[in-house]
Write a structure and sequence with these properties.
Among the domains are: 94 residues, B family DNA polymerase, palm domain (Palm domain of DNA polymerase); 166 residues, B family DNA polymerase, thumb domain (Topoisomerase I, Chain A, domain 4, Orthogonal Bundle); 75 residues, no CATH class. It contains 25 helices and 17 strands. The strands form five sheets. Strands 1, 2, 8, 9, 10, 11 and 12 form a seven-stranded antiparallel β-sheet that branches. Strands 3-7-6 form a three-stranded antiparallel β-sheet. Strands 13-14-15 form a three-stranded antiparallel β-sheet. The structure holds a DNA duplex (12 and 16 nucleotides). Its cofactor is [4Fe-4S] cluster.
Length: 681
DNA sequence: GGTGCGACCTAA
DNA sequence: TTAGTTAGGTCGCACC
């Protein structure tokens, strides 16, 4: 990790650590100093430094010394600002591992450190499966619930509720652990036949003992049996409970010690460490790729129970008529609830009522927490949304809160995120689309005229090293590394380093990769111009359009309408949100029955005009559905039944049944489409 | 022109 | 010689 080793000393590679500590576009010393210390530091070339150093009479040597001193002191200042040493020490204490191991080793090591301390007094030892055993473990079958959002602009309050530490809470509430798991129900029926598969190894249960236990077990929704805590309290529940309790204590203590800044920092580090370890405990159980003791039965049960918990919460919210609420989105442990025609104050009150109701509906310590109210907001797709956030009823000014969209991503340049954020803010505050249009057009003009800030147009992406790419990969960072190597073989970027680049104009038809330039090359060559067309049509407009198309606005048209002679007319790409066919509150549109484009009619004009194309499109769809249907295996994995005649499978949650159901729906659709084609001619 | 794949980065 | 997980969206290119 540190690349430098000194016996008896801990050597810290600050740059590598900062990659995890702060999210930045580039991790050069200057950039980190600017963002963490809020100080501008100069960067001189080696050539310049050498010149100064070698000048006669050492006239400028002090500059070189000062330059390096600034860096040394700056590094220390950065570490101090982030409380790196304090935090690492505290983590070491909380997890019970060495200081250096906090930085150098992964989260499995942390979990094991805590878990084995509890296991040993109970005379339990950990299984250590071989690589082969791990590879032969059953594949996971359960996935968290992520609802398809109703993708549109919401002018009414949307409240966001989420379960507090859901996975740890589930372990505690239902006593899910390696040490309490009896395996799958279907295996227990044959327990008298001997050992059966369990996790990476196998398990044998004495049938007589099993009979005595029959009233002291619970069965997870995916059919895995656990003993209740009166039989044996699981190690993971004990550990996680301990962690969560301690965290609550630490947080209380933080409130009491607000004056003592040093103590407060220490306590903050402590509670953060506790939170991290609680969250990765689940990851440990389902680390099927690299884990040292994964157990799919335990991991899957946690996910499946969490899913069930969220589903129950959704139905409770939607079926309580007095709230008049509608769940519009949810992911793993969160609920987004639309309250039509309610005020912000109502939202806070009702949201709290919902939290209390759902919390009461679940065993301790599962708790639904009021997170925030969005007013207004846009739900774009799964895991992508943005809104004006209020966290308390008396908060006057909202906070801009974005998840997953380009304002928080590092794979676009700053110009994109700045323009997107500004546009959304204009929309949210003024609700005036023409104001947004004016702003966007003025920014495009700036780019076209070459007045844009070049700093804002720099992309930076992580370099994976020469061996990190598939042959033929077309990646700017790799391209630049290759070019660097030609000049100086020491100048290859480090693995994990974020490599900056720009896109310049070139002759038409050239692939994008050949328009990639390093910033210093770009600056030193006056003939190079920023590729304004690329920046506008490929970077700035598409993310804007993903938001504003939901309001029925065509952002690309704004660009085309700009008074300018030499512009290139861009083609608006069809994005997922459009495909999914939002019905915005401003326009009544629907999806074309054939191509799923937005249309005012049942079938869009394009499909109407070209019947042959329609036939091809539909036939492709039909064959896809049929393939999918035929691929469904006919033996239900969880109930071992034959679900063709739905009678044999009693479990409503049976995943195969679900897939069959979907498959049948698809087949019905295929049939309808066949009829449609027949009618067409 | 559609599709599949690789690359990147984020949500949870 | 050590590594927590999966889901999801988007872009650019190669291929058919």
């Amino acid at each position: 990790m540190s690349e430098i080793h000194i016996a008896g000393r801990v050597v810290i590679n600050l740059w590598r650590i900062l990659r995890h500590e702060v999210t930045l576009n580039v991790y050069t010393f200057e950039n980190v100093a600017y963002h963490v210390l809020h100080q501008r530091e100069p960067l001189f070339s080696f050539k310049q430094l050498s010149t100064w150093y070698k000048q006669p009479a050492h006239k400028n040597r002090w500059r070189v010394i000062e330059f390096y001193l600034t860096r040394v002191n700056g590094n220390l200042a950065i570490m101090k600002q982030l409380d790196l040493i304090g935090q690492t020490s505290e983590f070491a204490r909380v997890f019970g591992i060495e200081f250096y191991h906090v930085l150098s080793r992964g989260s499995q090591y942390r979990v094991e450190s805590m878990m084995l301390r509890i296991a040993k007094p109970m005379s339990l030892i950990a299984v250590s499966p071989s690589v082969q055993q791990r590879a032969q473990q059953k594949a996971p079958e359960c996935i968290p619930l992520t609802l398809e959002p109703q993708s549109r602009f919401y002018s009414n309050p949307v409240i966001v509720l989420d379960f507090q530490s859901l996975y740890p809470s589930i372990m505690i509430a239902y006593n899910y652990c390696f040490s309490t798991c009896l395996g799958r129900v279907e295996n227990l029926a044959h327990a008298h036949e001997g050992m059966f598969d369990f996790g990476c190894t196998s398990l044998g249960i004495d049938p007589k003992q099993l009979k005595d236990l029959r009233n002291d077990i619970t069965i997870s929704p995916n059919g895995v049996v656990f003993v209740k805590s009166k039989v044996r309290r699981g190690i993971l529940p004990i550990m996680v409970q301990d962690i969560l309790n301690t965290r609550i204590m630490v947080k209380k203590s933080m409130k009491l010690n607000k004056e003592d800044k040093a103590l407060e920092r220490l306590l903050h580090a402590r509670q953060l460490g506790l939170k991290l370890i609680a969250n990765v405990t689940y990851g440990y159980t389902s680390a099927s790729f690299s884990g040292r003791m994964p157990c799919i039965e335990v991991g899957d049960s946690i996910v499946r129970k969490a899913r069930e918990t969220l589903e129950r919460a959704i139905s409770l919210v939607e079926n309580t008529k007095k709230w008049g609420a509608e769940v519009v989105y949810g992911d793993t442990d969160s609920l987004f609830i639309l309250l039509k025609g309610r005020s912000k104050e109502d939202a806070f009150r009702i949201g709290q009522e919902m939290c209390d109701a759902v919390t009461n509906d679940n065993p301790k310590p599962i708790k639904l927490k009021f997170e925030k109210v969005y007013l207004p907001c846009v739900l774009q797709t799964k895991k992508r949304y943005v809104g004006f956030m209020y966290e308390t009823p008396d908060q006057k000014e909202p906070v801009f809160d974005a998840k997953g969209i380009e304002t928080v991503r590092r794979d676009t340049c700053t110009a994109v995120s700045k323009i997107l954020e500004r546009s959304i803010k204009i929309l949210f505050t003024s609700r005036d689309i023409s104001a947004v249009r004016n702003y966007v057009q003025s920014q495009c003009k700036k780019l076209i005229d070459g007045r844009a800030n070049i700093q804002d147009c720099i992309f930076a992406k992580e370099y994976r090293g020469m061996a990190g790419y598939k042959p033929g990969a077309c990646v700017p960072a790799l391209e630049i590394a290759r070019k660097n190597l030609v000049v100086d073989r020491r100048s290859e970027p480090r693995v994990g380093e974020r490599v900056p680049y720009l896109i310049v104009y070139g002759p038409p038809g050239l692939p994008l990769i050949q328009l990639v330039r390093k910033p210093d090359i770009f600056l030193s060559d006056p003939s190079m111009r920023l590729n304004a067309t690329y920046y506008i049509t490929k970077q700035i407009l598409p993310p804007l359009n993903r938001i504003f198309a939901l309001l029925g606005v065509d952002v690309f048209k704004w660009y085309q309408d700009m008074p300018r002679s030499t512009k290139v007319a861009p083609v608006a790409p069809v994005n997922v949100a459009q495909k999914k066919g939002m019905i915005s509150q401003y326009f009544s549109t629907m999806n074309c029955a054939i191509c799923e484009e937005l249309t005012k009619n049942n079938v869009c004009d394009a499909c109407r005009r070209d019947p042959q194309n329609v036939v091809t499109t539909l036939n492709t769809k039909i064959s896809k559905w049929e393939r999918a249907f035929n691929s469904i295996s006919q033996i239900c994995a969880s109930c071992q039944g034959v679900p063709q005649d739905n009678q044999n499978c009693t479990s409503l949650d049976c995943p195969l049944l679900f897939r069959l159901h979907r498959g049948k729906q698809d087949m019905v659709k295929a049939e309808q489409y066949r009829e449609f084609i027949a009618k067409l001619f």
